[in-house]
Amino acid sequence: MLYCCWGKWKARGIALCLALGVALGIAGGSAIVRARAASEKKFIKWVDFGPTISALSAALDEDVASHREPGEGQVQPVDWVDLLACLGARYGGDFSRYQESHLRQTAKALGQGETPEQILGKGPDQYYSYYREAYGAVLGNLVGNYLLEEPDPQDPERIIETSGYGLTAFCPIARGYGFSHYDDFGAGRSYGYRRKHLGNDLMAPVGTPVVAVEGGVVEAAGWNQYGGWRIGIRSRDGKRYWYYAHLRKGHPFASGIAEGAEVEAGQVIGYVGMTGYSSTPDTNGMSAPHLHFGLQLIFDESQKEGNNEIWVDVYPLVDLLERRRCTVIPGEEKGEYRRKYRFTAIE
User: Fold this and answer.
1) Strand 216-224 to 228-235 pairing
2) Residue 159: is its pLDDT beyond 50?
3) Is 87 strand, coil or helix?
């Protein structure tokens, strides 16, 4: 995206100018019609993604187990998004109320063919469709069938291809590289203007390889004074915009990364740095090297930039994605890395 998630001051200015133009009749009738049509569309305007790492992990385990080894009385696999949406409706989105027994009971009922409406009963069931769409936007296409190249357990020098079912998304930090983080979503920031931090900072050394969480198309790859060198990747279903910022000075991007490029899950896309907080490109303006990692949800293109953006807390998701990390090896150029083993999600 053209603006970093922190650069809303510019978007707000543009939005204000457009609003004034319409009020004064400058924009013309067609612009008024388009604005009215957009305002009349029905789509989700806000998402507070609340599932904890415990709930995410348990839901994923239920999903995977139900696909690999169906349980007694099971007539259909359990979809972890359906499961989490049932809990979201039950708790009103407040996962401080989460109990594993609730999840197990709900998973069993879903596996035995009960509908969310039957499970939830009158009241909470009316909210299920919202949570299903909202959580589906966050977690869609992150679990499924895949093909993976890996060393043969009997002969490590021989590479074999295996199939499986589970996570098809990757942790943004490559395997073998340490990082630390805490839940800093919503924390205050003041560079340029007062605002909230709309991501999760993963503290790691300069040069640490950064990989794509899932496949998609690069929509932004360049400089922004707030995010420094940054990359924005839109998922193939168009609902998720993964944002990676503060990349390395001098050599921020992996080979082939440019706007319009197609990337695959687990592909090396760039390198951790500390650029940003400067209007001068290629400036280290951060106090410590880290990856700013964010996720924007897009239910309508009017939400892509401006005051209607929806950013969700990815802190628990990062913890979950540590289950699948990408092994990398040096590339052809100095300072470059590439994925060692091929991974292919099967849609």
Assistant:
1) antiparallel
2) yes
3) helix
Flag whether pLDDT at 7 surpasses 50: no
The tokens for 6 are 């922190």
Question: Mean pLDDT over residues 36-61, rounded?
Answer: 88
C-alpha to C-alpha distances, 282 to 202, 224, 299, nearest whole angstrom: 20, 10, 33
Residue type, 276: G
Residue where the block lists tokens 């407040």 = 94
If you average pLDDT over residues 16-31, what whole number do you get? Answer: 39
- What does the pLDDT read at residue 37? 53
DSSP assignment of 182-246 equals: ---TT-EE-SSS-EE--SEEEE--TT-EEE-SS-EEEEEEEEETTTEEEEEEEETTSSEEEEEES
> How crowded is the C-beta side of 236, counted as CA atoms within 13 Å?
14
User: Confidence class of residue 196 from pLDDT cuts 50, 70 and 90?
Assistant: confident
Task: Quickly state the pLDDT bin for 30 (edges 50, 70, 90).
Answer: very low
**Dihedral in degrees, nearest 10, Cα atoms 289, 233, 85, 80:** -90
CA–CA gap between residue 183 and residue 137 (Å, rounded): 21
The tokens describing 107, both together, are 């998973």
Residue 341, CA atoms < 13 Å, CB-side half-sphere: 21
